[in-house]
Amino acid sequence: MEKIDNLDKKILEIISNNARIPFKDVAAECGVSRAAIHQRVQRLIDMNVIVGSGYHVNPTSLGYNTCTYIGITLEKGSMYKQVCEEFEKIPEIVECHFTTGPYTMLIKLYARDNADLMELLNNRIQEIPGVMSTETLISLKQNIKKEVPIGRQQAEMIPSMEEDWRKIND
Fold first, then answer.
1. Is 1-55 CATH 3.40.50.2020?
2. pTM of the entire structure?
3. pLDDT reported for residue 1
C-alpha cells in the first residue's frame, strides 16, 4: 500500500475543486512539472484514491424537482444484493447504501414531482421482493455538497475500500 503525501493531498484539493483545471496550472500551483502531476494523478487513479471525474448535472434543470431519501427495511439483510440489483434498474435511484440503524438500506432518488415519487414508491420500489417497508424523507433544499476533507489527515496509507467492500458482500 502506497502512502499519500502532502503533494498528493495538494493535487487532490486542487482537482477536486475544479476537475477541468489543466495539469500545467496544477503543476504551477504545486511547484512541480506537468509530468510529475500527470504521474501523481495516474498513481492516485491506480490506487483508487481518485475514482472518477466529470460534470455534475443539476437535476432540476432536467425536471427532477423532488430529491428524496428513502429508508428501506428488508425481510432479511441477506437480500441486500438482490434488492440492490433491482434498484439498479430504476434510473431515478442515484445512490444505495447498506446501513446500520433502523433501516437495512438507504436510497437517494430524484422524482419529477410528488406524484412521480408516489408512482416510484408504490409501483416500483415497494413491489420488489424482499422490501418490507419504506420511510420517505423529502429534501427541501441542499445547502452543502462537497468532497471529503483532504488536507486534515497526516500522510498515511489509504486502505483499499473496494477490497473491504468485496469481503463484506461475498
1. no
2. 0.75
3. 53
User: Once rounded to an integer, what is the mean pLDDT over residues 70-97?
Assistant: 97
Q: What long-range pairs does 123-130 form, CB within 8 A, spacing at least 24?
A: 124/90, 125/70, 125/72, 125/87, 125/90, 128/83, 128/86, 128/87, 129/79, 129/82, 129/83, 130/74, 130/75, 130/76, 130/79, 130/82, 130/83
Grid cell in block for residue 153: 489527515
- Report DSSP letters for 105-165, one per residue: EEEEEEESSHHHHHHHIIIIITTSTTEEEEEEEEES------PPPSTTSPS-B---HHHHH
Question: What is the signed CA dihedral for 89, 94, 99, 102, rounded to 10 degrees?
Answer: -90
Assigned fold of 59-139: Alpha-Beta Plaits (3.30.70)
To which H or E segment does residue 13 belong? helix 6-17
Q: What is the DSSP letter of 93?
A: E
Phi-psi region of 101 (alpha: psi -120 to 50; beta: other; left: phi over 0): left
Contact (CB, 8 A) for 109 and 66: no
